[in-house]
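This section describes the prediction task in plain terms. A model, or a person checking by hand, is given the sequence of a single protein chain and must write out its three-dimensional structure as a string of C-alpha cells. No templates, partner chains or ligands are provided. The sample shown here is typical of the held-out split.
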Amino acid sequence: MQSRRNAMRHRLGRKLGSVALSAGLAWAGAISLLPAPAQAIPEADAIKKLQVVPVFVITDSNGVPLPIPREKELVLPLYLESAKANEQLAALNKNNPGIKAGVVALPLNVMNEKVVELNKQLKDKSKPLVAPIIGNDGDRTQAVKILKEQGLTEKQIQEGLNVPVFFTKPFLTITTPEGPRGVFFFSYENLENALAKLPVAERQKLKPQVADLTAVLREIINAPSDSFTIFPTPEYFRLVKENQAKGKQGN
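The expected answer:
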C-alpha cells in the first residue's frame, strides 16, 4: 500500500508544500486535508476511480516506457492529451531516427501500478522513476485564476497545485448505478458543460472550485461513505468512440 502511495506522489509531482498551504487549498477547494479516523473506502478503490482517466506514454516498440534520464531521477511524463504525447514522440523520432517509439494509452490507475513495478525493477536505486502528469494548459490557467480569486498566492499555487481537478461548492452530483455521487472533473470544459445543462437558478448556486489531485484522492478516501466519482476525460470518450468504430468495422 505504501509503495502505491509513493508512486502516486511521484506521478502527481511534489506533495503539498506546507501545513499552511494544505489549509489554504482545503479552504479554497472545500476539501479537508485532515486525516479521518477511518477510511470510507480502501485506497486501492479510490485509485481505481482513475480508470476513466487515460494517460499517454511514450514507449519503445515492445511497449516498454521510455523515461528521460536526469541527474537524480528518471522522468516519465504521463500526458493527459494524446496530442502533446505525439508532439514529444515526433521530436524524439527526429532526434533519434533509429528508435522505433510509439505512444500507448493506459488508464491512470493501471499506470500507477506500472510505475510501482518499474521502480522495483530499477538496478540503480539512486535514480528513482518519477512520472509527472502533464495536463491541459488551459485547465492550469483556469485553476490558477480560481485559486487567486480565493486568496492564494502565486507561491502557494506553484508549490501545491500539480494536477488540477475541478468540482463545485456545493457538489454537483450525478446519478451512478451505486446512487448519487459528487463529481470531480479533470477538464474545466467538462465542468462548464455539465453546469450548462442545469436550470439557471440551480446553476447559480454552484461555485466552481479546484484542488490538487492528491487532495481529491484524500477526500475520496476519507469521506464518511463512498460519496464521489470522477468524470471521464475527453480523451476517454474519444478512445471509446474509436474502439466502437473498430468493432463495427470488424463485424
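For orientation: The two ends are 43 Å apart (CA to CA).
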